Amino acid sequence: MQAWQVHQLGEPSQVMQLQDVERPVPGEGQVLLKVRAANINFPDVLMCRGHYQVRPPLPFTPGVEICGETEDGRRVLANPALPHGGFAEYTVADAAALLPAPDTLDDAEAAALHIGYQTGWFGLHRRARLEAGETLLVHAAAGGVGSAAVQLGKAAGATVIGVVGGADKVAVARELGCDVVIDRRTQDVIAAVKEATGGRGADVIYDPVGGEAYTQSTKVVAFEGRIVVVGFASGSIPSPALNHALVKNYAILGLHWGLYGTKNPKLIQHCHEQLTGLAARGAIKPLVSERVPLGGGAAAVQRVGDGVTTGRVVVVPSLENGAAA
Questions:
Q1: What is the spatial distance between Cα 298 and Cα 314, in angstroms, rounded to a whole number?
Q2: Backbone angles phi, psi at 105, to 5 degrees
Q3: Across the strands, what pairs with 292?
Q4: Spatial separation of the C-alpha atoms in residues 206 and 214, rounded to whole Å
Q5: Among candidates 230, 5, 228, which has minimal Cα distance to 129?
Q6: Are 13 and 298 in contact (CB under 8 A)?
C-alpha cells in the first residue's frame, strides 16, 4: 500500500515522503481500517516538526483523524494508532474507540467531525458551560477548530463573534453564521469586541491561537467570563497574569480533549451522540474547503501549517491525482 512516511523531523513539505510499505498488522484490541478520508489537523503539522506532545518513533505516518471502513464494511470514525497514521491507504485503530460515521455526512465531512467538534463541544459545554443568550468569541473562526466552535456556539443559542485574518476568511466566517466578524489585520480587535458588546465583553472566549490572541482575550472577557485555552497555533505560549484574572473575576480553563479517552471515555461516546444529532438536523456541518488525493498530502499538510487554509482540508485516497475538488 501507499503511505506518507516521516523519516526525519522538519517542515511537512520537506520531510513527508510517499512510499510503498506493508499494510500495518493490527495488534491486540486493534482493527485494520481502509482509509476513506483523513482530515488534516494542526497536530499533524506539529508532529512532523517534532513539536507535539506525542512523538511517535521514526519513521511514522501522520494523520490523527479518519473516516475508515472496517473489514465487514462499516463506516467508522477513528483516531489511528500511531505510528500508523491516517495519511495512507490502510491504518489500524483501537476497536473499542471506533465511532459510527453519521449517515448524513460524506466521508470527508465525517472525517472532520471528530477531533475539532469534540474539542469544541467539550470546551464550550463541559468546560465553559456556555448558556443560550451568552456571547461567545472565537479566535481563528474560519479555521478547522474555530469553524466547529462557531457552529456549536450558534447551535447552543449564543451570539458569536468571530476573529479572523484576511478578507477571504471574513467571508467564510460570515457564511458559518458569525453574528459579528472582526478582521484582525484591519481592525482593532479589542475596540471592535467592546463596541459589539456595548463594553461588556464576551462571556466565553475560545482560543486555539495563544500569543497575542490570548492577550486580547484578557482585555475583552466579561465579568465572570471564561477563557478556554485550546492550543497555540501562533507558536507562542502565553504566561497568564493570575492577578489580572483575580481583579477582573474571570476563569482560565485548559482543555486537552485527548485525556478524556483514558479519563472518561463514556463522555466521548455521549459527545458523539450529541454531534450526530446536531448533524442530522443540519445544525452543524464540517466546512471542507479541499478534498485532495493521497499524492497531495504533504503539500496540503504544509498549507495547514502555514495558516493559509479555511475550514478543513481532507485527504481522500480514492481520488486520483489532479482530481482535488
A1: 12
A2: -115, 145
A3: 315
A4: 10
A5: 228
A6: yes
- Return the amino acid letter for 25: V
C-alpha cell at 250: 474571570
Contact in structure between 311 and 289 (CB atoms under 8 Å): yes
- Is the pTM higher than 0.90? The answer reads yes
pLDDT in tens, 178-202: 999 999 999 999 999 999 999 999 9
Residue 246: exposure state from Cβ atoms within 10 A (0-12, 13-18, ≥19): exposed
Q: Tell me what the pLDDT averaged over the chain comes to.
A: 95
Residues in the chain, how many?
325
